Amino acid sequence: MRILVTGAAGFIGSNLVKALQNRYPEAEIVAVDDFSSASFENLLDFKGELVTGDVSDRRFWEYLADLYEFDAVFHQAAITDTTVTDQRRMTEVNTLAFKYLLEVAVKRWGAKVIYASSAAVYGNCPAPMREDGCLKPENVYGFSKLMMDRTAEVYLRRFPRAQIVGLRYFNVYGPGEAHKGRFASMVYQLAVKMARGERPRLFKWGEQRRDFVYVKDVVKANLLAFEREVRGIFNVGFGKGRSFNELVEILNRVLGTDFEPEYIDNPYPFYQNYTEADLTRSKTLLGYEPEWPLERGVEEYVKLLREEGKI
Ligand SMILES: NC(=O)c1ccc[n+]([C@@H]2O[C@H](COP(=O)([O-])OP(=O)(O)OC[C@H]3O[C@@H](n4cnc5c(N)ncnc54)[C@H](O)[C@@H]3O)[C@@H](O)[C@H]2O)c1
Q1: Which residue is closest in CA terms to ligand 1's atom 23?
Q2: Whose C-alpha lies nearest to ligand 1, atom 18?
């Protein structure tokens, strides 16, 4: 079995590469990344081949197509800085690159394609969010992901045997995200701050809700998408929106601290107030059952951060 993982040195990509390596020890895994938002440390245990390159460069796909033939492509590479406002760059790196990928993966390799979409496609649509419900991204990042989904749907119609699965990740947290800095999860950012003895800062009044999902559940969803006979778009969250105030309470308990949040004005005009995945479709068709409620995920994550000396 030959597997390509793009964005492999990033947060989710590196967790996925390790899981694939464990699950399919005989597989040939090729990791692709341009290291624009990655950490080489994430791939220290990776035993396959690394190909550095830019997925938004069409010639890069020709190069890959000349050298390899893959059975599966897991596509995680993207601009993940959600505050980038350059619409051309965002749509080239996220949306156009995906079309280049589909052209090669579907037409040349006949590979199964599993790609990262995002809950950003829902913006402030009412929660719980359904795959076939309201879609209204609030920024160009969310728009670029929505256009990936639309591209996937076009290819699914055009090639009835194509196996393409889009996974709309909600708010992912877990090991391997430190390089993302202020775009790392709130779980990571608050854990680091509180472990340093600083008061957590939340946008007023901390009651905004997020569907926090541990990276292990996200990896599991990717493996299910690969192993099951499915196609189309699926939500990947825990299935419950939790408030930032609740997150601080959980962190206080796990870290053994007793901080009151400091509330500050929210500078972002576009901000998701409440995200929660409707998991009906994912549970029914993908067989996805999340295993990591926030309490359990935070506990393991803090333990790992401590072991690595990160907090
Ligand atoms: N982390 C989340 O909460 C979350 C939520 C929804 C969707 N997603 C999606 O999941 C995927 C992985 O995100 P992540 O959180 O691991 O972020 P990340 O920034 O750690 O990973 C993205 C990876 O893609 C690489 N990359 C960026 N542009 C590239 C290019 N042009 N060519 C090759 N490689 C490139 C980066 O170097 C990085 O390694 C992304 O598609 C992201 O949009 C993440």
Answers
A1: 7
A2: 10
186-236: per-residue pLDDT in tens?
999 999 999 999 999 999 999 999 999 999 999 999 999 999 999 999 999
CATH number at residue 263: 3.90.25.10
CA of 231 to the centre of ligand 1 (A): 22
Q: What is the DSSP string of 175-192?
A: TT-GGGGGGS-HHHHHHH
Please check whether residue 4 is in contact with residue 73, taking contact to mean a CB–CB distance below 8 angstroms. yes
Q: What is the tally of structural domains in the chain?
A: 2
Same domain, 264 and 299: yes
Range of the domain at 34: 2-171+212-236
> Would you state the structure tokens that stand for residue 302, as one six-digit string?
């803090």
Give the residue whose CA is nearest to atom 42 of ligand 1: 80
pTM of the complete model = 0.98
Tokens in use for 15?
């967790």
Query: How far is the centre of ligand 1, averaged over its atoms, from the C-alpha of 95 (Å)?
Result: 13
